[in-house]
Design goal:
Order of helices and strands: HHHHHEEEEEEEEHEEHHHH
Radius of gyration: 21 Å
Helix content: 40-55%
Structural class: alpha+beta
Shape: globular
Largest sheet: 4 strands, mixed
């Protein structure tokens, strides 16, 4: 029972983040406000709350980090790079990085002075990470790595100091390719980026990356060359939890705007919120967001407790539930406001596109249903 009830510390953290986020302007298209918000949040310890105290972090977990992102989103100030920099990259380096990598990156990720992006998706691989073709090979003379390949839909590369790239190396025993993680500096020769023209309204831009024999020192490899999948999913489970937090925050923000409008907008001398046709769908949206939050909290706590298998199932379910709840909440909010829901003044129309992100990325809802059907229910695979 106590696992379902937030501690007093978490309640206080939630209130503090809500007050902080509500006192800042919403991010502008050029990203300047987003950067200022990031730095301010980092100074308060919010960005690195999940990173080890020994490296300047808060010593908390994904439970606390997801709570912070949810409240930032609920105030209309989500920080997408929280999913990437501290949650994925920070977690992977903290768990599997060398001492030198931890010393170099974790304090900077925690205090907001540096950012790290994450590149896994490829044009021809899609959701099938087993088809990743970005390859790394050893340069026998120097011991360096040479990395070649392409990545797409990589967030924030232009503002990140480095990108954690998922590549593959050849297993000398079997000849098969196995996944490995590499830290690629932004200015590495042969590492180029192209902005993808997106309809999505976000301060964080999306990029296609090309790696053309990018030379990396041996120490650019994160962790063990033979433990790639373990290391990869150590980052992907937090990614799913944090995406759920992002979606729940967005849905709460839209719902709050709709409820405020339904209380104040009066037609025939009655607030429109008094009508069940308006009130009931808003109540349903609230219920579904709350249910998604419970699954998100379960996933975060399982992960923080070291149960990677249990966290994998719960994180996928949380991401699915949150994505569906977010889309429904945004749709109902826009519908509640009618024509006003499509105006720039109320800021809901841009969420119509943004809310779909949680259904698509970092893994589609259909792939989550595949996962649950054969991993949880034991049904045969169709692929």
């Amino acid at each position: 029972m106590t696992a379902l009830i937030e501690s007093d510390e978490h309640k206080a953290l939630r209130a503090a983040v809500s007050a902080f986020a509500g006192s800042h302007p919403h991010g502008s298209d050029d990203g300047s406000d987003g950067n200022a918000l990031w730095q301010a949040a980092a100074k308060l310890g919010y960005i690195g709350v999940n990173l080890p105290e020994a490296y300047g972090g808060g010593g908390g977990g994904i439970t606390e980090l997801s709570l912070i992102l949810e409240e930032l989103g609920a105030a209309g100030n989500p920080l997408l790079m929280m999913i990437v920099s501290p949650a994925i990259c920070g977690t992977v380096i903290a768990r599997f990085g060398t001492d030198a990598q931890r010393r170099e990156w974790l304090p900077a990720l925690a205090d907001g002075s540096r950012l790290m992006a994450f590149g896994i998706t490829e044009p021809d691989a899609g959701s099938n990470s087993h088809r990743i073709t970005t390859t790394a090979r050893r340069d026998g003379a120097s011991g360096d790595w040479l990395l070649t390949g392409r990545k797409v839909f990589v967030s924030g590369v232009d503002i990140a100091d480095a990108t954690l790239i998922v590549g593959r190396t050849e297993d000398a025993r079997t000849g098969r390719l196995k996944p490995c993680l590499f830290i690629v500096p932004r200015d590495a020769p042969g590492f180029t980026r192209r902005a993808i023209d997106m309809e999505l309204h976000s301060v964080e831009k999306q990029f296609e990356l090309v790696l053309d024999d990018v030379r990396l020192p041996a120490e650019a490899l994160v962790g063990d060359e033979d433990a790639g999948l373990l290391q990869l999913f150590a980052g992907l489970n937090p990614e799913r939890v944090m995406t759920a937090a992002f979606a729940i925050g967005m849905g709460r923000h839209a719902l709050t705007r709709a409820v405020e409008y339904a209380r104040e907008r009066t037609v025939w001398n009655t607030p429109i919120g008094a009508h069940q046709a308006i009130a009931h769908p808003l109540a349903q949206a609230h219920i579904e967001l709350e249910l998604a939050r419970l699954m998100m909290q379960k996933a975060a706590r399982l992960y923080d407790a070291g149960d990677d298998v249990g966290a994998g199932e719960a994180a996928n379910m949380a991401k699915y539930a949150a994505g569906e709840a977010c889309v429904k909440a945004v749709d109902q909010a826009v519908h509640t406001l009618g024509g006003n829901g499509l105006t720039r003044e109320f800021g809901l129309a841009r969420l119509i596109t943004a809310s779909r992100v949680a259904r698509i990325a970092p893994v589609s809802r259909e792939m989550i249903l595949n996962y649950v059907s054969h991993q949880t229910l034991g049904l045969p695979k169709s692929y």
